[in-house]
Amino acid sequence: MNVFVGPTSEKEMTTGVHIVSDVYCIQCCIIIGWTYIDAVEEDQKYKIGKFIIEKSYMSKKAIVKDGANLISDPVQEEPSASRRFLFVER
Q: Which of 1, 37, 61, 87 could form a disulfide with 19 if both were Cys (CB 3.0 to 4.6 A apart)?
């Protein structure tokens, strides 16, 4: 797996109170989203175990071979006017 989760916390979201954990990139240790651990509202329980990855935290990388070394060169995309998410199931 290329991510790890942090400690749980209770957060008020637009759909109610949820228990979540931040999701971090295992390579750079930056928060890239969150995962639902529990939900207070019964109609929100379907989110438990789902991962939300924020596209605004993602960047494409170009790998350039320089002799025997691989150089990772980030390629930034134009920022979006609105926030976009990737919904991921385990």
A: 37
